Amino acid sequence: MSPSTVQSVIHDVFRSPADADGDAVDALNRLRATRLSGLMERAKCERADQVPWNARSFPVLAALAPVMTSPEGEITYPGDPMCLYAALSVAVDSALRSARINAGRPQETPFNDLCPAWQCPPTKENRLAAQHGLRFGHEAEGTPDAAVFDPRVWDEKARADLRLVVRRHRPRVFLVSTVSPGHRYALEMARLAKEEAPDCLVVFGGRHMDETMRYSQADRSVLLEYSSTLLAIEDGRAEPVVDFCVSGEGYFALDLLLKAIALAMDLDHTRARVPDVVEALALLGASGLRIPGNSLICARDAATLHAFPVRGEKYDLADLPSPYQGFAIRSRFPVFPMPDRTAARTAHMTVSNACPYHCDFCSESALVVGGLKRFGKSPAESALERVCEYVSYGAEAVFFDDSIFWSGNFPAIREFCAALCSARTAAAPEELPERCRRWITEDDDWERLRNLQFGCQVTADLLTTLHSEDDVRAMLAALRGAGCTYLYMGIESMSSEVMGHVHKNIRRVTDFPWKAKVRTALSRIREAGIPVGSSVLFGLEGETRRTIEETVHEVGQLVDDGLVMLASPNILTYHPATRITKSHGMREKLDYHSPDIDNRPPYIYFEEAFPGVVSRRLSEDDIWFIHEATAKRWGAVRNSAEPELR
Fold it and tell me: Is residue 475 packed enough to be buried (19+ CB in 10 Å), middle (13-18) or exposed (0-12)?
């Protein structure tokens, strides 16, 4: 079935080129002047630049919805919530600049009067002392980093922690980023936030919004998948605890929404109502404000859905503000060991936003995301500067989260590796490119850069059929020479019968079957001296108990031969916008909203796996078999603790 067309009020005011309404411009200027005067009066100041920060700011809490209910049987490496940090990057940058710029110059201030309470970035001392866990330490007050709730599992402790955080922080806005398997917990987080702070506006974003909510220009309507937040609320499957949803290229859209919320807030209590925010958004659009990218902002006002489609100019991924500008690096990955055997402080980084492949099961494909964006302007130099920035924040390692490193572009990979290698082997910081010298300013920065490790993701085809053997070996040597100490590769299945249905191996070579590609690619990586981790996905089209057994055995052979240092078993989970979800007839059946789902063994042993949303090709007995067989055959190389058996 097709997505539902929802009756909504379409506000088509954010389209390029700008066509400002003179009356709207005058109205906006008058409103801003009146609000600045009101702030000055309340603060008893004669000038706008004298208004103290606490009279201008309002608290915002951001959260990443987890996808797990139990850590049992699973070793979870504490990575940073980069989807949340990236989504906040433009808004955080606007708030930090607003805190620095004189409030008496509204034309130069991103937030013209009220502003999110993100006053300053973490100090270097805070960054170097940061650990994973609950934040809100006194030393971090006023930083975006202090206003993040990032639980790894959703259980009674996480619920109690969220209540505590909301009571202490009293947010006026609660921002939640969620993927589909975390959506039911996102809804519960929103409900708890509303209970503790009834005037708080709740904003949902993240991959689940991207996959389930879009705008159709052809018939000027909002299209919602069955599992979308707004449709679940409309038909009563979910409580009406979400006020705004943002989908698409949301970096600039979220910044725009927060500016509208700030403009709609009453000055006495810094509270905003949805209708006033809708009015502020309409006024900003009519006044000629334009933002880059393609996105959609939807607002729920009782029974009315207001939609603001955005069609702006294209932008370069490298031009976005740094995601870590307002946040400390808290990840520590054991795959990057330090000399003292501790795990390195690991920054996450992307130089492309989607995967160029078209795997039917994957929600990272450019077909699902809506296009592929990369570091485009001087890409190697821009990426090297970003690496140096993260090193100055305390990074001892960097993992590139791109689905495929540099989208698989060999010249780009070689250019970046050459730039990084040159920087790491420079005789002194003074020899670094000018863009990097401003970050590498202290001896410990320099030491971390010289010893920096990094990792990235590759595919079997990238290292076999898409390039000549000489080019592959040269590229791997360049990676190793630049400090790459870890590669991650998706094996998915070792059954040719299963992989014949998957578009991952886009170069079909009859005399080079998938099993041989995987082994060849892993052998070339080992010869380059780089350890490899891998992911295996059970439940794809064509999966049977026989193909499961074949994959378990063949991956075991790779383990025996020392070709992989880590093997991660996963169960296919249906994502709303993927082709396999449609072909398996699951689009109208996905339950990502019920709060009381019985998430039990064996599902809890696999990230994102829940009853009702895992592959129809697998029975519960199959999932138990996968859990037990991989633990027995792969041994300690499997990335999980000793499993509980039936």
Answer: buried
Q: Which residues make beta-bridge pairs with 355?
A: 365
Q: What is the pLDDT of residue 374?
A: 87
pTM passes above 0.85:
yes
Residue 643 is predicted with a pLDDT of 43
> Using CA atoms, how far apart are residues 151 and 89, in angstroms rounded to an integer?
20
**Count of CB atoms situated within 10 Å of the CB of 220:** 12
Residue whose tokens read 């932008």:
315
Asked if 127 contacts 104 with a C-beta cutoff of 8 angstroms, the reply is: no
Distance CA 472, CA 530 (A): 14
The Cα 368–Cα 207 span in angstroms is: 10
204-258 per-position pLDDT tens digit: 999 999 999 999 988 899 999 999 999 999 999 999 999 999 999 999 999 999 9
How far, in Å, CA of 535 to CA of 520, rounded?
17
The amino acid sitting at 611 is: P
Contact in structure between 183 and 593 (CB atoms under 8 Å): yes
Return the SS3 of 173.
Answer: strand
Distances (CA, A) of 197 to 154, 193, 201, 202: 20, 6, 9, 10
- Count, in order, helices (H) and strands (E) of the chain: 21, 21
Detail the DSSP E strand segments found in 60-206.
Answer: 60-64, 115-116, 148-149, 173-177, 201-205
Cβ neighbors of 625 (< 8 A, separation 6 or more) are 545, 548
